[in-house]
Design goal:
Number of domains: 2
Number of helices: 4
Structural class: alpha+beta
Number of strands: 6
Oligomer: single chain
CATH topology of the largest domain: Alpha-Beta Plaits
Length: 148
């Protein structure tokens, strides 16, 4: 289970599911390239506040489970991950360029979604609907929104 990130004035738990397809859906993620991708992600974690909780590689796309801080927007996270991983994969495995003409590793598109640890959309809607109702608030808060 993910831990909250504590800063001087805030505490956050922001999780994102990011899916990035390889350009032209080429099957270039061999075991060796996948291993290098994971090592690159560890390097990104050490330089940026982008933490990779899981990385799932298929032959032509990658799923990332990422935790970050509110300072970084989802777009900034995506741009950082895609640009640094592409640059390093091309540097460490130049043979991959043979399959990806045009010098791009990833497609321009991606999929990103937030991941909830304590609540889903329905729980939040119920919580907001019952604002101001002390009894309902306590019941929802204690049973489903264990925030702190």
């Amino acid at each position: 289970m993910s831990e909250h990130i504590h800063k001087s004035h805030n505490k956050s738990l922001l999780l994102y599911h990011l899916v990035c397809p390889i350009k032209y859906r080429r099957s270039v993620l061999t075991d060796e390239v996948s291993k290098i991708l994971q090592e690159i992600c560890l390097g990104i974690s050490s330089q940026y506040e982008i933490h990779f909780l899981e990385i799932g590689c298929d032959e032509n796309y990658v799923h990332f489970l990422i935790q970050s801080v509110p300072l970084l927007s989802p777009k900034k996270i995506v741009n950082t991950v895609k640009s640094l991983t592409a640059r390093e994969i091309f540097r460490l495995h130049p043979e991959v360029k043979q399959y990806l003409w045009g010098g791009k590793f990833w497609t321009s598109g991606y999929y990103i979604n937030t991941v909830g640890q304590y609540a889903n959309e329905e729980v939040i809607k119920k919580y907001l609907k019952n604002q101001g109702r002390v009894d309902e608030y306590r019941k929802i808060h204690k049973s489903q929104l264990k925030l702190f």
